């Protein structure tokens, strides 16, 4: 089972999360590409450390929205979004190549992630950018989403992910961050949820409903309180359950 985390989300002198510690624990790093967070020096630093530790680097592409951390919806035209995703992919891939590695997958961030799950135009822009840049590049997204369907239809590899530190609604969608139960911050609970996803392929929703959650990768948000402790417990719990942490893309 792959463990991924959102990393490189600082900007300039501001740091968000402990990238260095998390890169010792995760198997894939979703690296911010400078639009919703991150900058050139941050990208270089995270790519260097990821390459050194054998962690797969993925491009976490987002809206051009540093002030809103990419969590505000933007109504992009298809071509503009396609080109801005390509721009972000190329920027991160350039830093990867300095350290004899490359971008291994793409994952949308924040509001773009949620928009592409239901908006055909924005999902199609992501699919077009990946198809043109590198048709072998997997897309990390929610199973059954519009993005997953369009990507599969275009012949791209789709990797479904689950969120051990986010609450789920009974319909399988994430609890909005503005609502109670959006975040799961108890490290023991996060670890138990991760094991359940990896072994039973299910997750317990906020109302107690057990819902299907067939995933190949489990996400741990780098900006969640106690993220490093959560990652430590998740990794140990998975190994204890007989699940080997390993990147889905090599």
TrEMBL record:
InterPro entries: Glyco_hydro/deAcase_b/a-brl, LamB/YcsF/PxpA-like
Xref: SUPFAM superfamilies: Glycoside hydrolase/deacetylase
Record Pfam families: LamB_YcsF
One GO term (biological process): carbohydrate metabolic process
Gene3D superfamilies reported in the protein's UniProt record: Glycoside hydrolase/deacetylase
Species of provenance: Micromonospora deserti
PANTHER family cross-referenced by the UniProt entry: 5-OXOPROLINASE SUBUNIT A (PTHR30292:SF0), UNCHARACTERIZED PROTEIN YBGL-RELATED (PTHR30292)
Name of this chain's protein: LamB/YcsF family protein
């Amino acid at each position: 089972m792959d463990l991924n985390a959102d990393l490189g989300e600082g900007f300039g002198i501001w740091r968000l999360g402990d990238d260095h510690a998390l890169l010792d624990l995760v198997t894939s790093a979703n690296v911010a590409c400078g639009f919703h967070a991150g900058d050139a020096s941050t990208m270089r630093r995270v790519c260097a450390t990821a390459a050194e530790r054998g962690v797969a680097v993925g491009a976490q592409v987002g809206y051009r929205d540093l002030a809103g951390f990419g969590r505000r919806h933007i109504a992009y035209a298809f071509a503009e979004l396609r080109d801005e995703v390509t721009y972000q992919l190329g920027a991160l891939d350039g830093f990867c190549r300095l350290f004899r590695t490359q971008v291994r997958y793409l994952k949308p961030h924040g509001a773009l992630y949620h928009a592409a799950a239901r908006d055909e135009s924005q999902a199609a822009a992501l699919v077009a950018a990946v198809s043109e840049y590198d048709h072998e590049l997997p897309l990390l997204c929610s199973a059954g989403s519009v993005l997953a369907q369009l990507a599969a239809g275009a012949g791209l590899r789709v990797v479904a992910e689950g969120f051990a530190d986010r609450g789920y609604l009974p319909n399988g969608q994430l609890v909005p961050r503005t609502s109670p139960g959006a975040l799961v911050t108890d490290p023991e609970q996060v670890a138990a949820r991760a094991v359940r996803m990896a072994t039973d392929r299910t997750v317990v929703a906020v109302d107690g409903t057990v819902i299907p959650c067939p995933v190949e990768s489990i996400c741990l948000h780098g900006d969640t309180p106690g993220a490093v402790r959560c990652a430590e417990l998740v990794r140990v719990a998975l190994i204890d359950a007989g699940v080997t942490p390993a990147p889905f893309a090599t």
